[in-house]
Amino acid sequence: MTKNNVDLTVFYNFITDNNAIGIHAINTLGQTIIYNDKMKKIEGLNLDDMSDRSILDVFRFSNAEESTLLRVLQSGNEVLNIKQTYWNQNGQEITTINDTYPVIEDGHLVGAIEFSRDITTLEKLVHQPLQRYGESITFDSITAVSTAMRRVLQIANKAAIARLPVLLIGESGTGKDLVAEGIHHATEPELNDFITVYCNRADPQIITKLNEQLQHLEKSTIFCERIEYLTMLQQQELVDLLADYSGEHLFIASVGNDPIDLIAEQQLLKELYYFFAAMSITIPPLRERLDDISPFIQSHLARYRRVFGNQLKGVTNEVEQLFNHYDWPGNLKELEVLLDEMGTMISTEEYITYDLLPHHFKLKVQEYRENTTFHAEDFVIQAEQELMPLDHYLREAEAYYLNKVLDKYGHNITRAAEALGMSRQNLQYRIRKMKST
Ligand SMILES: Nc1ncnc2c1ncn2[C@@H]1O[C@H](COP(=O)(O)OP(=O)(O)OP(=O)(O)O)[C@@H](O)[C@H]1O
């Protein structure tokens, strides 16, 4: 393609490669033909993973309906403004808005193209703080059933009493923000305001603005969220500011990684770390405190029932097992986003079954599920198979059968017990026994 005798292909390639929008295009066979650098960053995949391969192969889609690109290819209709939050292979939280279009040439469909706008920063700085408006977070609002999390809250309570600077260390979504606000409300007498500073390096005036704000504040809590996101210069400005105001206010900061590593990687200023290090609280990732998953789901679903009036009571055993084996790179926030996503699809269901899980989550747990789910053929004796003791075999067979029946009846105990020809109490007893083995 040329214009004024200039080959435009080179310009089009440049536009594709130097663009703030992720672009992914496929042909009618589902093969990737364009996958730009921005899309690579967003999805955390390599071009080599994608080129010359059918999108079906790469993602192992079990159902073409579930890929927007393939859906558009099949229907010929555009799908616009789909918002998604997920954690890519590097454990980074990403929020995108996607538009997917059919590509038509001379009246014939020749492929489909997806444009993905990365709105992660906008989401973090604007939408999430807005969502939390009106809700005051105390230690009671934080799910802390695991020993590790109860310990975190104990130390946080001590920090509130001591009113010393606090450093909260933990991966994205572990609840640092909540613990900071919990500390604020646990101070006695309670400090006046809880101010969150989203450490956005793109704002060169950020520390100057904080300085102006501090001049008008009396005895408040200042939470500097993710201080490692500031430039070194901004961090130095913050150190100077803290020295001026440390007697007046309670300062809390958070970091997403081990601060010693951050210092070694020159992402955190040593002096800033020293200021906060007196009280360091490490919040462990969710995969190291699985006991918190179930109570978090319970309290989240209870809120759903109150707000949306639906019937959701919990998740099936199968989903619970998958949750316990997934590594949750986005921690409780990822679980929350997942529940929210499913919440919008629920109408009359009482339990979240495997089928209700969003496709992107099914992909993440697919391998584990394939390796662990019992199949009917597991109970057939095969020549090469090692025999297991009878009581073990019966236990597994019972668990397999009970789970199947419970799933069939959406975990409605009364209906499942009826189908199994036993009392509700008997079924509940067997479920408890199954969970404890
Ligand atoms: N222990 C918890 N109890 C209840 N909700 C939680 C808990 N931990 C996280 N959440 C949920 O996850 C969301 C994100 O948590 P939060 O913003 O505190 O994470 P964070 O560690 O500050 O993450 P980031 O480093 O990305 O800012 C919260 O708004 C809350 O809804």
List bound small molecules. adenosine-5'-triphosphate
Shape: flat
Largest sheet features: 5 strands, antiparallel
Termini gap: 67 Å
CATH hierarchy class name of the largest domain:
Alpha Beta
How many discrete structural domains? 3
Mean pLDDT equals 83
Nearest-angstrom radius of gyration? 26 Å
Give the strand order of the largest sheet, numbering strands 1, 2, ... along the chain.
Answer: 4-3-7-6-5
Helix content: 40-55%
Specify the CATH architecture of the largest domain.
3-Layer(aba) Sandwich
Would you count the extended β strands for me?
14
What this model shows, in words?
By secondary structure, this protein is of the alpha/beta class. The protein has three domains: 2-118, Beta-Lactamase, CATH 3.30.450; 132-284, P-loop containing nucleotide triphosphate hydrolases (Rossmann fold, 3-Layer(aba) Sandwich); 289-436, Helicase, Ruva Protein, domain 3. It is 46% helix and 17% strand. The chain has helices at 9-17, 37-43, 47-50, 55-59, 68-75, 120-131, 147-162, 176-186, 206-215, 232-245, 259-264, 270-276, 293-308, 317-325, 331-343, 359-372, 390-408, 413-420, 424-436; strands at 2-3, 6-7, 21-27, 32-35, 79-87, 93-105, 108-118, 166-169, 194-198, 221-225, 250-255, 279-282, 314-315, 351-352. The strands form four sheets. Strands 4-3-7-6-5 form a five-stranded antiparallel sheet, with helices on both faces. A five-stranded parallel sheet has the order 9-10-11-8-12, with helices on one face. It has a two-stranded antiparallel sheet with strand order 1-2. α9 (206-215) runs parallel beside α10 (232-245), α13 packs parallel to α15 and α18 (413-420) crosses α19. The protein starts with a strand and ends with a helix. Mean pLDDT is 83; it is low at 58-65. Bound molecules: adenosine-5'-triphosphate. Adenosine-5'-triphosphate (ATP) binds next to α8 and α15.
